[in-house]
Structures are given as structure tokens and as C-alpha cells.
Amino acid sequence: MSTPLVTGRLLRLGGGRISLRVGPRSVAVGAVAALIVVVGALVSLTTGAFPLTLAEVGETLVGQGSRATEFVVLDQRLPRLVLAVLVGAALAVSGAVLQSLSRNALGSPDVIGFTTGASTGALVAIVTFGAGTLGTSLGALLGGIVTALVVVTLSAGRGTQGLRMVLIGIGIGAALLAVNSWLITTAVLQTAVDAQAWLLGDLSNRGWPQILALGVGVVVLLPVLFGMARRLSLLELGDRPAGALGVDVGRTRTILLLCAVALAAASTAAAGPIPFLALAAPQIARSLTRAATPVLVPSALCGAALLVVSDLAVTRLFSPVPLPVGIATGLIGGLYLVVLLVRLWRGSTT
Amino acid sequence: MTRLHAQDVTLGYEGRTVARDLSVEIPDDSFTVIVGPNACGKSTLLAALARVLAPQAGSVVLDGQAIASYRSKEVARRLGLLPQTATAPGGITVGDLVARGRYPHQQLLRQWSDDDEVAVAEAMALTNVADLASRLVDELSGGQRQRVWLAMALAQETPILLLDEPTTYLDISHQIDVLELCARLHAELGRTLVAVLHDLNQAARYATHLIALRKGGVVAATGAPRDVLTEELVTDVYGLACRVLPDPETGTPMVVPRRPERMGAAAGAASGVAPGAGPAVEGAGDGRPVAGG
Fold it and tell me: Model-level pTM?
């Protein structure tokens, strides 16, 4: 056959028993994003107020460092880095799945109130129960999941579910934003300061237990979602076409929603609300790969890269008092997305 | 018993029942066409037959077993559906979209076999879209796009194929293209076809078996078009006065609507002239005087 029928490369192993269709652009975008993560990791481990050589970092990682390097690497820089990778990947995949399910770029968890709901949960824990870090994380997790349940239940029914979910989510998010402000005004000064600090979204001062908890969530949920990517792309054809092709629409949608919501809530529980990443990273991945389907793995890598770079920017450019990382994700991700979209639309109309 | 039939199904959506206790049989190896007025439940019935809509009561039976008891992919290997509304993802190529029809034959780690390649190539050749493989679906005309969707359903390689209004939005020559292709699929490739059509004359030409639904999802008549499609049936089902003549091309029944009589005009000599009974109007039909029959 002269011209191939389908796009992408075919990978065949074991005499055709395993065959995978891979998009070369997806692989390239994923590889570049992974490279950015690795370089960003090396830079963030070695530079800063206390510069280290790669050898020193390596020795410390295998347990042969000094007390000082152990403090800098294992207690300061590494948790921050790992958290950035986990949160970036989790938010990006959550955004990619929810945007695909709602067939709307605005259907990402930070726009449709899920993240705001997680914040409400955290604030209730801090202000009402005087909770510590663990309680705050639990509050955020619960708040995010409950909000998602409310939004999804209210938008259930016939017709254009996607747009309805976006609109209802924006409404509920706005209401919860008001609740959040109100909660802070009711608190005594020091609590209000703590709450406000949490609301800025930050990767510092998170202990290993919290990072591990998110890590477990990511390691379990991401593969589940990656495995369901084909079904997700069939759902984009519409419920009936997908059902006719053999997708169990109701069950698939429920599992996808649950996993995506859990990822968003768990990230917010670990790092506070990080704005814009869940919206921008999947869009950046999709326009770079030019794929017609949601690209979950490249999205995850782009999200991780975006957050690692953003965190480097706020900590290294604005030391010793770093800006909240959310400001950088908004600036870097937002501007880059605008540039991409403008180029894309210009290109498509000419 | 036929391979596919619906047994006393009640169909509807939340708070709205479209059909109650409806039973239909799809004869094996037939080209069955379902006709009926707007909102009579044709598409809903087709969706239930394809298992993309669960009946509120009763069951659809496929190969002797309730269709709900199969795994989704198993159903999708036995029957395919060309739905009325499907959205092509932006930026997808024709080949990639047709290839999605192979999903029920694939697995997580077995995403593309030689069978897949052959089935997609054949489906695209049959529907005449082989040249378009690397084009974007967004760039196609309506007629081409409909053929691409049909190719996707064909690539599924199911013995039974359900088509929901496959000719809607197409001009007359593209309508005939699609129907001739369906006739070929039925006659030469032995597929059982079930289509919802609006055009009674096309239905009479191509169907081997006709199911006429009345408003409220009630079967008005079933059988060969020659036996079923009569002036009485059209008046009964659509509230439309008409004459039924033999199609000069095929000899199948051809429905010619009558003009409604104007006020003050001389009374029509022929029977079956219904004052005010123009083309079937959705939502009307209660207490409308229908003369003749």
C-alpha cells in the first residue's frame, strides 16, 4: 500500500501479539518535556543560596553527604522538586481528562470549581477546626471531591452535558470563592494569615508524608487513566457513537471522572491551589502534538515540566523571598498558551 | 426467532415515554427500513436495538440472549450503528476516524493488526473515500463526511448494521449513493441492515421489510413494502391524504401526496382528501379531521 491509511507509527513486538500505534509528535513532545524536567531537576538541586556540585548532590542522594548537604538536598530541594513533578503531572492529566469529557477547554478543575472546593475544605479545616497540615490536606481532599460530586450531579441529564458542567461549575466555584473570603474574615488574625498563606499555593514546607500520599495517588491513578485513553478519545465522538463502538459509556465516564477529580483534589491537598496549570498544560500538549485525541502522557510530562520550571523561576529569580509558584504558572503557562493558540488560529485561517 | 428483536420494550428518557410495550422483529438477512412521523420513536427504537439506550421495561434480544447481558465490545462485534449525531474531533484524519471502527476488535496492547488494516481499507474502498485517507474530516463536504462515518461503521465488520437517517442533510444524488451502497451491502455482502428513513418512496424502493411506526411508538404495519405501503397506511400514520402509484422505475409503491383542498373550491372527486391535512406536522394530529380512507 503506497499511502498509509492511519497516522502514526506502528510498533510491533512478539510477532504481532503486541502492536501499538504511536504518534511521532507525541513521542517527541513527551521526550522534550521529560528532558526539561530532568534539566530543571539538576538545576534546582544544585543551584540556590547554597550551591552544590552534581557530585555532592549525588553523594547526598545515596546517603554519603554531610549534615549540611543532607539538609539542603533531602529536606529542602528534593521534596520541593518531587512535589512539583507530582502536582504538575496530576493536575495536567486531571485537566486533560476533564476537558475531554466536557468537550470544552474550560472544563478543567480549576475553572469548574473543583480546586476552589478543595480550598473551601482546607479553610474549613484551618479556620473552624484549627487543623494542622494533615487535617488541612484531608479537608482539601474532601472539599474537592464533594464539590465535584455536586457539580457532576447537578449537570447530569440529557443534552449537552459538557457545557452545562462548565457553567454550573463556574457558578459553584464563584459561590465557594465567596465562602472562602467569608471564612477568612471570621478567623482570628494569625489563623487568617495561615489560611491566606495556604490559599496562595506553594511547594515549600511540605513534609515527606504528604508527598508520599500524593505519590501513591499518582502512581495508582495515572496508569489507570493512561489505560483508558482510547476509550476517552472514543467518548469524544459522542455517547451513542462511543456506545456503538463497544464502550461502556456510563461506567467509563464514572471511572474517568472519579480518577480525574481525585488527582485534582489530592494535588490541591498537597500543594494548595496552583492556578491555571490544569487548564494550560493539556492544551499546550495537544497543540504541540497536533493530536486529534487527548494526549495524556505528553500532558503529564508537560505539566511536570511547566511546574518545575515555574518553581525554579519563582525561587531563583525572586530569592530570598520567593513568589508563590501560582504566579509563575499563570504567567509562563498563560502567555505560552496564548502564543500557541494565536499561532494555531492564524495558521488555520490562512 | 430472528437474531435481533425487541420484546415489549418501553422506551423513553427521564420523565418522557416515547414508546410503550413495543415489539419488533428484524428478519435475518433483511434490509429493514423503519418509517414513521417525526418524534414517533424511530431513532429511539434504533438506539435501543443497538444497546446505546436501555429500555425502561422489556428487553432487546440478540442471538437468543438479552442484549444487556453481553459485554459492550461483544455487542459491538455483532452489530454496528451509524448514529444521527456524531462529532468528529477537530484535526482528525479520515483514516484515523474510520480506524476507530476497529475498536471492538482491538485490545490495550493490540491496537493495530493486519485484519484492522484490511477492514479499514475495504470499508474505505466500499464507501469511495479511499483517496481521502490523509485528509482532515473538517475539510470534507457533507456528503463525503457521511460516507466517512459510514466507512467507520463498516470497518466494524458486524453482520448487523443499524443506520439512523443515513441520508439526512444529503442532496438527492448523495442520498441515492448511500442507499445504493446499502443495497449492495445487503445483497452482495449479506449484511442485515436496519435503517431509519424519512422518504417513503426510497424506503419502498430499497427495503425488503418495512416497519411503519405510528405516533406514540406503536407498530402500524410490518411486511414487504408492496403489501404495507398503501394509501390507508399513509393516511393513518401521517395524517396525509395521498395516492399510491407504482414507481415507474422499479414498480414499488410510490406515494404522491394530494394537495389539500382550499375553502370554497369544488369538492374533490377522489376520496381521501383531507381539509387542512398538509404535510405531516410534528406535535399536531389530535382531532384533525381526516376524510376518506
Answer: 0.88
